[in-house]
Design brief:
GO molecular function: electron transfer activity; heme binding; metal ion binding; oxidoreductase activity, acting on diphenols and related substances as donors, oxygen as acceptor
Protein name: Cytochrome d ubiquinol oxidase subunit I
Main location: membrane
Strand order of the largest sheet: 1-2
Keywords: Cell inner membrane, Cell membrane, Electron transport, Heme, Iron, Membrane, Metal-binding, Oxidoreductase, Transmembrane, Transmembrane helix, Transport
Oligomer: single chain
EC number: 1.10.3.-
Helix content: over 70%
Shape: globular
Order of helices and strands: HHHHEEHHHHEEHHHHHHHHEEHHH
């Protein structure tokens, strides 16, 4: 929750300082200093919360780490060694170097902080994209893990490129509304009016371009899901049966029922879904029921692959290895079926039990449709709201009519948390929609987790809940405190009370 704001504020600070260096106007330096202080609070707490996840892979996801450690660990190590250290090093110079560096030198440092934070996001998202589209690796039957093949294949994974821009720019939206909302607070109170008006205008323009980029890259990700993760796209759209182009409606609201595999009611807009997802008017989108049926041969093939691999582990016979290689692309489906096998061992499945195991496994290939459908809808609805809000903010700001519209300023102020919620809904869509896989088509989630007891997990989660609640309370306290204080520490502004200025002069 802290990261999106960090990503966006760095480039906003760089933009403000650029204007200061070019124009020499003190107000833009004040803007950089003030918003930089709020960025620093968020950055410190974001680092504290992010570190625990580095350890969680080993403690809570040990099988995943063993199976996919080469692929996931490489970009994670680069992020830690290059991007995070670069960001952490230059952030000190950014905060304490104002009187020690030249204007261009300090500006360069601010841009390096922004670059470092966004490079951190790049490598994290490269790692995540490898879980969705495991390019650049192959499964090694000797070591029983995915082996790293191609650095280029990992870095230039299409999912990584689209997801990086989409997710990073979502952080820019969060930062834009953060700056805009606090500036609206000052304008409502008629404090720091020149400072607030300039900050508001920069944030509004920054926000509208960022929102357009988020929507555009979201469309690219939807197209990739259509091609590579059809179960996710079908769940996102609540599509139980294969679409009938071009009429198929885009469903605005529905109540998907996972148990019955149907929706209680649907409200949709006809002729929208097919061009939206396929970028054509004739290509159908396969429904979840048909995807289940299409998975049956892969489940059978996967059971064969896992059985051959188990025999090869025991006897190292070339015939078993050959049989495994013939079916290895479906191995993940065999692992998925193990949950329904006698003793969770697919080698124990008798011929007469095979069809029953396949039928029980078929529904497992689908994610939770209700969660995926509604998390996607909430993200989209918020995205449209942001576009309208930033468009109105830009218009009113350019027309110098902000203070005539106090209700709109209040709306901006109360909307500050919404981009963070939209980002969370986006991640729920991405991660819940990928289920039942941690590594898509390769490793099921239930096999990825460590074998902790329920009591251990409850104790661990309770401890982190308390700790993180303290972090968010500290974050909110400090943000509210310094936002209310405003930029007055950097000098009086032209809208200060004249009587007060007279007292100061005397």
């Amino acid at each position: 929750m802290f990261v999106p704001l960090t990503l966006g504020l760095t480039f906003m600070l760089a933009a403000m300082e650029t204007v200061y260096v070019v124009t020499g106007k003190q107000v833009y330096k004040d803007m950089t200093l003030f918003w930089g202080k709020l960025f620093g609070i968020n950055f410190a707490l974001g680092v504290a919360t992010g570190l625990t996840m580095e350890f969680e892979f080993g403690t809570n996801w040990s099988m995943y780490s063993r199976f996919f450690g080469d692929m996931f660990g490489t970009p994670l190590a680069i992020e830690g060694l290059m991007a995070f250290f670069m960001e952490s090093t230059f952030i000190g110079l950014m905060f304490f170097g104002w009187d020690r560096l030249s204007k261009p030198g300090h500006l360069a440092v601010t841009y390096l902080v922004a670059l470092g934070s966004n490079l951190s996001a790049l490598w994290i998202l490269v790692a995540n994209a490898s879980m969705n589209m495991p390019n650049g690796a192959h499964f090694d039957p000797e070591t029983l893990r995915m082996t790293f093949d191609s650095f280029v294949g990992v870095v230039f994974n299409p999912d990584a490129q689209a997801k990086f821009v989409h997710t990073s720019v979502a952080g820019y939206v969060a930062a834009s509304l953060f700056v805009m909302g606090i500036s609206a607070f000052y304008l409502l109170r008629k404090q720091h009016r020149d400072f607030a008006a300039r900050s508001f205008r920069m944030a509004a323009l920054f926000g509208i371009f960022s929102t357009v980029a988020v929507i555009t890259l979201g469309d690219v990700l939807g197209r990739l899901d259509y091609e590579h993760q059809p179960t996710k796209i079908a769940a996102m759209e609540g599509l139980w049966h294969t679409s009938k182009p071009p009429y198929e409606p885009w469903i605005i609201a529905a109540l998907p029922n996972d148990a019955k595999q149907e929706s209680s009611f649907e409200i949709g807009v006809p002729f929208v879904l097919t061009p939206l997802i396929t970028h054509s008017f004739s290509m159908p989108i396969t429904g979840m029921i048909e995807l289940e049926d299409a998975a049956a041969p892969r489940i059978a093939s996967g059971i064969t692959a896992v059985s051959a691999l188990r025999r090869y582990e025991e006897n190292h016979q070339a015939a078993d290895l050959e049989e495994f290689r013939a079916h290895q692309d479906d191995m993940g489906y065999g692992l998925l079926a193990s949950r329904h096998a006698p003793g969770q061992d697919v080698t124990a499945i008798a011929p007469e039990q095979l069809q029953s195991v396949i039928e029980q496994t078929k529904p497992d290939i689908l994610p939770n449709v209700f969660v995926t459908f509604w998390s996607f809808r909430l993200m989209v609805f918020l995205g449209v709201f942001f576009f309208v809000l930033f468009a109105m903010a830009s218009y009113l700001s350019l027309k110098n009519q902000l203070e005539r519209n106090p209700l709109f300023l209040k709306l901006c102020m109360w909307s500050i948390p919404l981009p963070v919620l939209a980002t969370e809904f986006g991640w729920i869509t991405a991660e819940a929609g990928r289920q039942p896989w941690t590594v898509f088509d390769r490793l099921p989630t239930f096999m990825s987790a460590s074998t902790h007891s329920v009591s251990y997990m409850l104790f661990s989660l309770a401890g982190f809940t308390v700790l993180y609640s303290i972090f968010i309370a500290v974050e909110l306290y400090l943000m509210f405190k310094f936002a209310r204080l405003g930029p007055e520490a950097h000098g009086p502004h032209e809208d200060a009370d004249p009587a007060h200025l007279s007292v100061v002069a005397h």
